[in-house]
Amino acid sequence: MPRRMLVTRTSLPPSDFVTTTISPLAPAEFPDMPEIAGVRIATAEAGIKYKNRRDLLMAVLDEGSQVAGVFTKSRCPSAPVEWCRDSLPAGVARALVVNSGNANAFTGKKGQAATDITAKAAAQAAGCDPRNVFLASTGVIGEPLDAARFSGLLGKLAVDAKTGGWMDAAKAMMTTDTFPKGSTRTITIDGQDVTINGIAKGAGMIAPDMATMLCFVFTDGPIRADLLQLCLNRTIGASFNSITVDSDTSTSDTVLVFATGAAAKRGVRTVESKGDRRLRLFQAALGDVLGDLARQVVRDGEGASKFVTIDVEGAKSARSAKKIALSIANSPLVKTAIAGEDANWGRVVMAVGKAGEPADRDRLAIWFGDTRVAVDGERDPAYDEASASNYMRNSEVAIRVDLGLGSGRSRVWTCDLTRQYIAINADYRS
Amino acid sequence: MPRRMLVTRTSLPPSDFVTTTISPLAPAEFPDMPEIAGVRIATAEAGIKYKNRRDLLMAVLDEGSQVAGVFTKSRCPSAPVEWCRDSLPAGVARALVVNSGNANAFTGKKGQAATDITAKAAAQAAGCDPRNVFLASTGVIGEPLDAARFSGLLGKLAVDAKTGGWMDAAKAMMTTDTFPKGSTRTITIDGQDVTINGIAKGAGMIAPDMATMLCFVFTDGPIRADLLQLCLNRTIGASFNSITVDSDTSTSDTVLVFATGAAAKRGVRTVESKGDRRLRLFQAALGDVLGDLARQVVRDGEGASKFVTIDVEGAKSARSAKKIALSIANSPLVKTAIAGEDANWGRVVMAVGKAGEPADRDRLAIWFGDTRVAVDGERDPAYDEASASNYMRNSEVAIRVDLGLGSGRSRVWTCDLTRQYIAINADYRS
Asked: What is the ipTM of this complex?
């Protein structure tokens, strides 16, 4: 699978050229994702920024499709994020249009005009109201997006759209991503298969809330929009809001979940109440899909060579545990030590200390993998540098901190910080 | 001036060996710092971690010397920080002992024992109470500090100590620093010269509050401890609490100001009230020294190739402006763009947006140097990529953001994020 975006630098020696290979942490393959009745997909080459690759995605949804969403908390959100926020309350979706190469963020009135043009063209193509069209853009910030470049393609895309084509859809959204991200789960409701397919993009500018990413989930389950939103709100915290690559929060983060309800034709009754047991089943599967995709984003973290799981337990509260876990996950010194395969737990202590949350140095214990490296405020008496260093050579590293104060716990995922991150980001626009 | 700590890596190509040269942003030379009556200095090679260099500093202060201090806000402070915090309320100092190579942080009861041994030995050497001895340690976290290695040297140091020797003192504190940091101001009070000399160390793990650094300031001005503390509290915010290298906060940050009062012998009356006009004069000069040293720390930021000044104005409040300024200064994507000489103001928008402070995208204006690159929520109509890119080639870069909401303003200093930072920090302990 070739890297789709080639970035080259001329001012660094050859070893610093951004590689065209996929992340060493990528899953072995894109999952085999079933078709979902009521969702048709098409992609095209619009030439927005990239040449010779598909950069435009359209998904057409059957009438009656419900939608839920969560968005970036940035105070400077992109035009498509504002568009989606305005459209979401109705809970009805008929089409999704996504482009890569340009984020349509900080583009002022021109940005709003671009979303209007795109939504109108997509609505005409899909035969629906523009407000039932959802939009997302990813790429460079601040460049005006020329919607005319692709609005003319949407009519043909709507005609060509077919069930399936998930990998092509995931690829069309890629920017600095090195592999397309997909995840699928099938559950049984009322004796019938109900499928949840998700695709995502994201590699840099990744931090809660939320990771800089786009994620679109589709299901044929018949679920009312407000309940879909409830499931999303309950699962986003432990998935996309528990990952960080570089502590930077995007203007464009978007997660949308679409439910076509097509399974109703096979006898699945519509989920219409909070207390419905089937909703919990659906929510668990949705959480699995979102968690899987979120971890894939970390595995594609810009320049990442290690996948890192950070567990904090024994905190005063879950919120406090999460703040400490993110302080560790976002520390450049912790991340560079991991890149250097250095079991530098002193930097973990530093990151705990700077989080500003309750912590008692003399109750702190820290593990790298199964090896306890520190206990009771000092180095573990049984600490063995050779075995700790050996552990750090793994491509997946787990760090666990027990604060010894309470029962609050949290898990977050991140990656290491390498010179490849610098090479990728020092010259992204060029 | 040779780099004192050599760090080498074997797993990277030659271009990634940590250089032994001083920072390209270093001042041309160490300042010519006058003697200060009542302060005597000596340094020694204790071999704590480094070989063939002085790593131990002792300053002996005349009887009657007053002291003020501020320390890290880390919840996991080092043993010397706890020692100083306990000793500070008396406001009296007779000696300062600083070692590099080991931070005596997260060393449990052993760490406390090490501070006790050191303070007792220094007190015996200086002929004072151990509680009048102030301590600081900088270097690796988590390694027990063997105080016996240098406590035996303190008797001779106290005898050898001489007025002057400021550059040697600054050098003895260096860890990843590539140049010693000093600053001096002389003011006239009651017709007499009063001098303020400061030395500092710091290069990585630098973030408010406070930067990871040690800073010691000495003056012959006769100023009572509580007023000295007042001056320090009023000047630390715009100096050491306005810099960041990597957003990581140390366990060891310490700023101490010592006033010997020796100028009283030359007829300078002791400053004893808040309203004393001479206090404002002193405070301004102290602020200059602290600001100069804080900026020198940024100039020695690990791997730094650019010195960056960030001004935020038009915010709802000064506090809000500072939070936004630090969000920009700490953003890895902003910092790598600067390293790549890329006028990527879209990332500045991102960092404003993620700060969580009041901001209106459509009122935002951004300048790189004198060039306005964005206005009213979009790219400046007069934006010229070539001229913006040309500006980014400077070794000093100024970024200004006007939020257009109020009159709150703040200035912070930082440096860029380069692959050299990764090389330095991926293998610091080895």
From this structure: 0.70
